[in-house]
Amino acid sequence: MEQWLSVPKVELHAHLNGSVRDSTLLELARVLGEKGVIDFSDVEHVIMKDDRSLHEVFKLFDLIHILTTDHKIITRITKEVVEDFASENVVYLELRTTPKKNDSIGMTKRSYMEAVVEGLKAVNAVDINFMPHDADAGDFMDSQHIKSGTCNGATRKKIYVRLLLSIDRRETTEAAMETVKLALELRPIGVVGIDLSGNPIVGEWSTFFPALKFAREQGLYITLHCGEIPNPKEIQAMLDFLPQRIGHACCFEEEEWKKLKSLKIPVEICLTSNIRTDTISSLDVHHFANLYNVKHPLILCTDDAGVFSTSLCGEYSIAASAYGLGRREIYQLAKDAVEFVFADDEVKKDLREIFNSAAKMLDFLF
Ligand code: 6MZ
């Protein structure tokens, strides 16, 4: 796994609350246990469990959301998640999260997102760029938070972060629309698009369609969790919608593969997540191999690095060994992801340069 640390990487499918460190979750659970809100020993067992069905994963998310309720904790986990990705040489991170409303603690979807932005501002282990270069963040930012360049004469590591707001499949059309309007409002602080996620057995495509259509008309990028369970009607409708990317694509039939390939919609592939949740029975039959062989656009991602105890280096390592990819292929796979980011051309150009200069240092490429 060490060797993939030196390769710059792009992470495009990471859920904030799924990427929290186990140590942080346990610490938060202990505090709530002491307050008598939860029974710590029960929760500890659930957090540390390794294999979970897709159904159990969504029960775990409900628990994580209890642990991470307030604004301060959202700020903390955002900072930690960004720093964790940066520490494994992720140079561009698209972080997605579901804005949450919680009247009992005065949380609105907007204040939830403000807490996320505070977390981005608090990142100090690396230089972070999370605002588009032409942005006017208005009262959102008291000062310019794009830190640049050097620290004590040494070039510091840099990470680009852009945000996607998730619509949870439990939400109504109105709630989904509220999230889209918030995303539009927050474009200046680096919100670039909308994701549709949540338990795939819940909700109907027709509920979310109006909000997603509006988002697209307003120029937001769209990525959809698509085909996590067999649902041919919904998969067809999602592909017809022409999202800029989709996530997972685990339960596609022949017709759906044909359509996906002809439309060339990039797929965010989450190997460990798919295996752990038993959505795909083994790496041997995972669709990565076929898509890779036919040169369909794909991106390796973690999904929920905390929940599935993985990392982006780990995902590259699994792909290398399971599908016999050499170092050059892995480098190329990582670099190709730049073409599918939801950021502007300047960021893409800079990322290409980061990959090119890294290639000169990676002696294994030559
Ligand atoms: C579908 C998923 C997911 O938004 O609270 N989420 N949705 N499939 C998956 N694959 C296993 N993994 C995570 O992060 C957690 C939320 O992301 C979605 C679920 O809605 C989960 O509650 P945020 O930061």
TrEMBL record:
BP-aspect Gene Ontology terms: adenosine catabolic process; inosine biosynthetic process; nucleotide metabolic process
Classification via InterPro entries: A_deaminase_dom (IPR001365), Ado/ade_deaminase (IPR006330), Metal_Hydrolase (IPR032466)
Superkingdom of source: Eukaryota
Gene Ontology terms, MF aspect: adenosine deaminase activity; metal ion binding
Reaction it catalyzes: N(6)-methyl-AMP + H2O + H(+) = IMP + methylamine
Domain spans labelled Adenosine deaminase: 8-353
Family as reported in the entry's similarity comment: Belongs to the metallo-dependent hydrolases superfamily. Adenosine and AMP deaminases family.
Entry keyword Hydrolase: yes
Keyword Zinc: yes
Cofactor: Zn(2+)
Protein name: N6-mAMP deaminase
Keywords of this entry: Hydrolase, Metal-binding, Nucleotide metabolism, Zinc
